[in-house]
Amino acid sequence: MNRTLIANLPDHVGETVRVQGWLHATRALGRTNFVLLRDRSGVVQILTPPDDARGLPPRESVLDVEAQVARDARAALGVELHSPVLRIVAAAAAPPAVDLAKPDLTASWPFLLDHAPVSLRHASRQVAARLSAALVQGFRAALQSEGFVEVFTPKVLGTATEGGANVFQLDYFGRPAFLAQSPQFYKQMLVGALERVYEVGPVFRAEPHDTVRHLSQYTSLDVELGFIESWRDVAGVLQRVMAAMMTHAQPANPGVAVPPVPDPLPVVHFADALEMLGTALGANLAAEPDLAPAHERWLSRWAEEEYGSAFLLVVGYPLAHRPFYTHPDPERPGYSAGFDLLFRGQEIVTGGQRLHRYADYLAALTQRGWDPTPYASYLEAFQTGMPPHGGFAIGLERVVQKLVGAANVREVCLFPRDVHRLVP
Amino acid sequence: MNRTLIANLPDHVGETVRVQGWLHATRALGRTNFVLLRDRSGVVQILTPPDDARGLPPRESVLDVEAQVARDARAALGVELHSPVLRIVAAAAAPPAVDLAKPDLTASWPFLLDHAPVSLRHASRQVAARLSAALVQGFRAALQSEGFVEVFTPKVLGTATEGGANVFQLDYFGRPAFLAQSPQFYKQMLVGALERVYEVGPVFRAEPHDTVRHLSQYTSLDVELGFIESWRDVAGVLQRVMAAMMTHAQPANPGVAVPPVPDPLPVVHFADALEMLGTALGANLAAEPDLAPAHERWLSRWAEEEYGSAFLLVVGYPLAHRPFYTHPDPERPGYSAGFDLLFRGQEIVTGGQRLHRYADYLAALTQRGWDPTPYASYLEAFQTGMPPHGGFAIGLERVVQKLVGAANVREVCLFPRDVHRLVP
Q1: Helix, strand, or coil here: B315?
Q2: Please, which residues 47-86 of chain A have a Cβ atom closer than 8 Å to chain B?
Q3: How far is CA B28 from the centre of its chain?
Q4: CATH superfamily of B123-412
Q5: Does the pLDDT at position A161 exceed 80?
Q6: What pLDDT, on the 0 to 100 scale, is given for residue B52?
Q7: pLDDT digits over A278-333, tens only?
Q8: A250-253: long-range contacts at Cβ-Cβ below 8 A with a sequence spacing of 24 or more?
Q9: What pLDDT was estimated at residue B54?
Q10: Interface predicted TM-score (ipTM)
Q11: Which of 350-369 (B) contact A at CB < 8 A?
Q12: Does A382 lie at the interface with B, CB-CB under 8 angstroms?
């Protein structure tokens, strides 16, 4: 007999079915015994003769059950199983480290993460995983429909060119090599070949700070496109991508409050943002090169009030504080054509227009006093003719964190990596 | 005026359009001058006044052109552009390192790979990239429709548990860590939580052999599912996944010969394969623990003749030669429930049924004389009850290599990594 998923049992009232799953819990109500069986779709209660209930192995053992589906209005599912024939497929060798039968997990986060193979069996720990998958599906669907090609780029690099700090070093056949902090250089070079590319992949930051926002490996959703007029074209793609991500997230997660994505995204210039913040907070912020987390939270609240938007695009960050490949704002000297997208008080996207002329790259490196030699391959792309282009990178875990309202980004990652955590 | 892609010009005969792209080449036919402009969709010839043609910057410069679309039966596209107004968007600072205007690239592969940002602009170098993207789309579509959840697992590990040899070591905040050779342990642990998972991601092998088949980073398409009856259920998923991959590959690449995927996949047992090989090659292979590349080629030719199939599933590899988590064949002692899928003479997939009982894992580790301590997290999943499960991993680059008939796997990778190559 084929397996029936528990969520589908209401379609089989009166039939004999076969279900398979984990022994979630047992319950005794007076003289009545229940076995609760869990599969990936839900939990069902099985009315069990006392003899059967006594011979049960530990919780989380895997069972195969043939039984009859009976309507029961008191059950959450509207049905329960009667007259079961229980078979133990794999007995658990020990009870679970985490009590999975409670509606909420009560252990500390370090304990839950240490025991991830068990704690991830709890429904509450799976929301973020399913949401991540749905968001990435939406991301790809939007880009696919606009002619972007998915690419796969190296994660091991010969030089630590893109920033310098916070890079992991490895031994590559006796030579030093470095883990990629982003696919930035590759996606730009590929604009010269494919014009529009995207990548979903891990990026690595040797982030020594133990904060609720940082992981040393996270999933970056990267986009780059050529033949733009300005950063506004990039922001347009971002709006459509973000809208598709939210649209895909909703049906997969009816319990999560998914906000609308305004078209166009509300925009504030960095200089105007500082001025508003200065007025509101009574401080002189005119010389600030970046936004502090408290500023991002204030601006998000402002966007919520002013535009009814959970999203706010801050554009024009000071050029000196952005990466060397950032394009200047042609109309406001000192400011860049770079942006961040804030979502519910936190930066979840960085992007903008990039330099595209070879001479501009040489000037940008010279101005920083950097030797262009390690950048030779990257520079060859610009030397050989590159269109105006731009792109962005979305931090997947941060989007999920803000969607589910998790206090710590580690809570929405299956197996997080940070300065202390390498296992499991 | 909005940009028109070159491939769409035949829809605009008689209209004035705007095209944008790279100066692919110039041609003088008698007194007539042509500029060839290339974008991501194709190449168009532009009838150019002599004065315009003389003032042109180097090849690969980026141009913006407004012109009239005129029918021309001699042009490959069926149209050409007349009366152009040419604007130089970004002049190339040097001619391209590779001659991109020839129908075939003639430089050596090391040279082409060294100059990847330029050589990838050649149409011949983009076939594999577009094919890879289409195959991965098919992979995901098949799994999505069968209830699999996409996951993102750590690529940096605290222990080099899965094999030991050929692992890259890195400095993780002063501690040793290792790059993941596969998501094997994670996808198995996640079967306990989500039952059916898949991942598309980079894996890393410190492969010291400089062969045409090995990369030190490649893209692994990983699948794992619980509640199987035997390896045959896993092979069924593999058949459907592979069929979807080929279906997606075809329209994206009309020039590539995409073979049908028989349902079910033709199967030969490892012992029978050795017997056939022994008879055919006149050698005693009875004690061989694995298939040599020449054996795989012979078996593929045999499957082509016997079944008309480019695919052959070899099952039952000797247990001693497979990883410790491999499930034995319940009917043939010494043989495993593990398989490889051969495609046109090469192994492109490894998979099978895994052990699922905690005691079996302890016995497998003990038999190898391995300390179970570093495996504690992994073992916790089995200790806490795991269903019979299995899965497989597809090496994306190898599939592409065989589809396009490339002699070397490096040819189908955008920026390959091997024992010598770390740049670009």
Answers
A1: strand
A2: 58-62
A3: 41
A4: Bira Bifunctional Protein; Domain 2 (3.30.930.10)
A5: no
A6: 76
A7: 999 888 888 888 999 999 999 999 999 999 999 999 999 999 999 999 999 988 99
A8: A251/A134, A252/A130, A252/A131, A252/A133, A252/A134, A253/A127, A253/A130, A253/A131, A253/A134
A9: 80
A10: 0.97
A11: 356-359
A12: yes
> Where in chain A are the domains?
6-90, 123-412
Looking at the complex, does the CB of residue A110 fall below 8 Å from at least one CB of chain B? Answer: no
pLDDT for position B205? 95
B111 near A CB under 8 A: no
Q: What is the mean pLDDT of residues A95-104?
A: 96
Token duo for residue B298: 């012979």
A192 vs B133: CB contact, 8 Å cut-off? Answer: no
Exposure of B90 in the CB half-sphere (CA atoms within 13 A): 26
Ordered mean pLDDT values, 10 residues apiece, chain B (424 residues): 97 98 92 94 94 87 98 93 97 96 94 98 96 98 98 95 82 96 97 98 93 94 98 98 96 84 98 94 85 96 98 96 95 95 97 98 95 95 98 98 95 97 95
Residue B164: per-residue pLDDT: 63
A89 token code pair: 């497929």
Give the A window 172-201 contacts with B, CB below 8 Å.
172-173, 175, 177, 179, 185-186, 189-190, 192-196, 200-201
Q: Do B118 and A22 touch (CB under 8 A)?
A: no
Q: Alpha-carbon distance B18 to B36, whole Å?
A: 15
CATH fourth-level superfamily of B6-90: Nucleic acid-binding proteins (2.40.50.140)
C-alpha neighbours within 13 Å on the C-beta side of residue A213: 7
What Rg value do the Cα atoms of chain A yield, rounded? 26
Mean pLDDT of A61-73: 97
Contact present, B251 and B228 (Cβ < 8 Å): no
- CB spacing of B120 vs A189 below 8 angstroms: yes
List own/partner pairs for B175-184 with CB under 8 A and 24 or more apart.
B175/A422, B177/A422, B179/A156, B179/A170, B179/B155, B179/B204, B180/B153, B180/B154, B180/B155, B180/B156, B180/B204, B181/B205, B182/B220, B182/B222, B182/B393, B183/B151, B183/B153, B183/B220, B183/B222, B184/B222, B184/B323, B184/B325, B184/B393
Quick check: A165 pLDDT over 80?
Answer: no
pTM for this predicted structure: 0.97
Q: Which of residues 11-50 of B touch A (CB under 8 A)?
A: 20, 22-23, 39-40
Strand ranges across the sheet with B156-157: A156-157, A175-179, A169-172, B169-172, B175-179, B156-157
